[in-house]
Design goal:
This protein is α/β, with parallel strands linked by helices. The chain is built from 11 helices and 12 strands. The protein has helices at 21-28, 44-51, 71-74, 77-92, 119-123, 158-161, 166-194, 214-224, 236-243, 251-260, 303-307; strands spanning 101-105, 113-114, 139-140, 147-154, 203-206, 231-234, 270-273, 281-285, 291-296, 300-301, 314-324, 330-334. The strands form 3 sheets. Strands 1, 4, 9, 10 and 11 form a 5-stranded mixed sheet that branches. A 5-stranded mixed sheet has the order 5-12-8-6-7. Helix 4 packs across helix 7 (166-194). The longest helix is centred in the middle third of the chain and has 29 residues, at 166-194.
Length: 338
């Protein structure tokens, strides 16, 4: 059971091809070896924190300098940074609500697939005996998925934070993760609106009214067929306008909004607030087949600098991109606004 105490930790664990630090550590100290023990439920990284008696959360959390009590424990610091940033990304992230699939790649070049179906292809008519079965052609897209590097730079000396509690430092790192998540959401919306190449706008329904009406939402729902309108994205102004629609003001919708903060649209779609979206615009999509997210690696930290206490100008970043899967699975409603 004490095998985790003999694991050798070093910088090189951050540079193993196609694996992150936690994966490398898990191979060296498999969690399955701890079933039925007091350490069951911990992953390999958490066992290393226990080994060096480092508490990263709660009122009794240790100061940052606790990571640097030995050269081995210092090797855990970049992973702590990455995990805290990921927590912030997850807390602020609405991408799981709009992304159909996540593709992880090892390089920087990625060409996704597409299938252009005509309306006749989507009907799947009966095939007579001996007749040819209609074909669905799947091909790679002409353009590469545009990958964006998003991140933040730590600008602080080790001396300035060494005595700060890890619990407080984690809050700061989570905010970095939240910034990254919001930037990724903007990238995703840009692809939904303008396509992978930035030149293929989604089909748009334009209404002359100053505010969206219930009939406009019905038109948007109908335009998305045969795809399902299960998700809608709206700016702050558009959310306010939608909330004023009479059908939003029935007792059940009001109780749900007041009790949970979650909005229910008259058409059953999951309504998501996106402050960065243009004010007089609502995006409707079929979450199951509209958008692909491409990730080149995990949260990246400059591990050498962090292990050597060179926090000044240490970069934390992610590399992601997005691609529309089926163009017809996304439609946009625009209106004049007041």
């Amino acid at each position: 059971m004490a095998g985790f105490e003999s694991v050798t930790l070093e910088k090189g664990m951050y540079t193993v091809p196609h694996k992150n630090f936690s994966q490398v550590l898990e191979e060296m100290d498999p969690s399955e070896n701890y079933r039925g023990t007091p350490l069951e439920g911990m992953d390999a990284y958490q066992r290393q924190l226990k080994r060096f008696d480092i508490r990263v959360g709660g009122s009794g959390s240790d100061p940052v300098e606790k990571f640097f009590q030995t050269s081995s424990s210092a090797a855990l610091f970049p992973e702590y940074i990455s995990r805290a940033v990921r927590q912030g990304m997850e807390q602020a992230d609405v991408l799981p609500s709009i992304v159909a699939t996540v593709t992880k790649i090892d390089g920087m070049d990625y060409r996704t697939i597409t299938s252009d179906l005509s309306e006749d292809d989507k009907t799947l008519k009966p095939v007579a005996e001996g007749a040819a079965i209609p074909e669905t052609v799947v091909r790679t897209k002409d353009t590469l998925v545009k990958l964006q590097k998003r991140g933040r730079m730590l600008v602080s000396s080790y001396e300035a934070i060494r005595f700060q509690k890890l619990d407080l430092f984690t809050v700061t790192l989570r905010q970095i993760g939240a910034y990254i998540a919001r930037a990724q959401l903007k990238d995703a919306i840009a692809v939904l609106l303008n396509g992978d190449d930035g030149k293929t706008p989604a089909a748009t329904i334009t209404t002359s009214g100053e505010k969206p009406a219930y009939g406009d939402m019905v038109s948007l729902w109908g335009a998305l067929a045969p795809y399902s309108m299960n998700t809608a994205l709206a700016s702050t102004a558009a959310m306010k306008d939608l909330l004023e629609i009479t059908q939003f003001q029935d007792s059940q919708a009001g109780l749900t909004f007041q009790g949970t903060g979650k909005l229910i649209t008259p058409l059953g779609a999951n309504l998501i607030h996106v402050p960065s979206l243009e004010e007089e615009k609502i995006i409707a999509l079929d979450k199951t087949c509209a958008l692909e997210m491409v990730q080149a690696g995990d949260v990246l930290t400059e591990s050498d600098k962090l292990i050597d206490r060179q926090l000044e100008r240490a970069v934390i970043s992610t590399i992601t991109g997005f691609s529309r899967i089926f163009d017809g699975a996304c439609k946009v409603l625009t209106y004049k606004g007041a």
